[in-house]
Amino acid sequence: MLAGPAPAAGLHRRRRGTGPHGGRGRVTTEPFEHPGLLYRGSADYLAATTTFVRDALEAGRPVLVAVPAANLDLLRGALVDDGWRITFADMAVAGRNPGRILPRVLLDFAGRHRGYRAAIIGEPVWAARTPLELDACAIHEALINAVFAGRDATILCPYAVSTLRPAAILNAWRTHPQILDGGVLRRSTSYVDPLTTADDLDVPLPPVPEYAKERVVDDRADLPRLRAFVRQAAGTMLSPDRLDDLVMAANELVTNTLRHTRGGGRIAVWPESGVLVCQVDDAGPSPGPLAGRVPLPPDDTGGRGLLLVNDLCDLVRLHRHPAGTSVRVHVAT
Asked: For residue 208, is it within any domain?
């Protein structure tokens, strides 16, 4: 039996007013709670996060700490006496691709602890993230609210005010119903329906560069040639295993295109700093913002393509536009 809607672990703080940003009304996800944490320095970070964890442990709740390595080390050290009761994960590894965090980190942990109110610290945003990654993180944070609505869980998401871009902090207010800042828990008036927010955050992708290698794919018989094209375009920039990941991801994306459109699509491959990029464009219908982010039932034999692509790639950005859909993936070189 699921526990009742208890207050969020570690969030027994003085509440005062609302956030500083105007919005379009209040949307509830109860009993699920998804506060953001604005912190300034290590002491501020540890004060809030260790209280959250210890309150959860005292209440008998399963705890997951999924944060970047530096903060992971801080929390391991501060919680050394309780470490055996906590699941730790390096978010820069498990959540390198923000599209993988919901199915493989958050839902996986909550699913393995059914019957208990999960307490999770999830920090998907850090200063080294690229602008394209930050866009993906903001969409991820919005979609957490849609996927976990009604679930018995609390997910606390820290944001480093002193090192993050101002846009990342503004998006924290947009994607979290409440924000904990300086010990005060405030309701965010920027928070609205999460699917509306995810749609607003679906900004156009940067244009495909002129130097990209491109190919039209309009027939299933082209799939072997497609795979050969991706291998040739990648050259020696990827290790054999990572090249296999990119080829499999491209094959899944183009297979989806051929399955759901009449006119086929176009694939482009090109290098950028530290990554090899592949983009598939088609005129087909949008698969929806949650595609590839929620595991399917075992008896569902279709619709796993984007889930697999999220598993294989270091970044996946899906953009819906009037002419169709574009999916861009990155694999680190």
From this structure: no
pLDDT in tens, 216-268: 999 887 899 999 999 999 999 999 999 999 999 999 999 999 988 888 899 99
At residue 308, the 3 state secondary structure works out as: helix
In a domain, 166, yes or no: yes
3-state helix, strand, coil in the chain (%, to 5): 40, 25, 35
| 9-38 exposure pattern, b = at least 16 Cβ within 10 A, e = fewer | bbbebeeeebbeeebeeeeebebbbbbbbb
What's the predicted TM-score (pTM) here? 0.90
Q: Which of 200, 222, 254 is the last residue of a domain?
A: 200
Q: Are residues 43 and 152 in the same domain?
A: yes
239 DSSP assignment: -
Print the domain residue range for 68.
Answer: 14-200
67 and 173 together in one domain: yes
Is residue 76 in a domain? yes
CATH number of the domain that residue 48 is part of:
3.40.50.300
**Helix or strand or coil: residue 215?**
strand
The per-residue DSSP string of 97-151 comes to SGGGHIIIIIHHHHHTTTTS-EEEEE----TT--HHHHHHHHHHHHHHHHHHTTS
Determine phi and psi for 279, rounding to 5 degrees. -130, 135
State CA 329 to chain mean position distance. 14
Q: Is the peptide bond before 31 cis (omega within 30 degrees of 0)?
A: yes
Cα 245 to Cα 249: distance, rounded to the nearest angstrom = 6
Q: Let me know whether 27 and 124 are in one domain.
A: yes
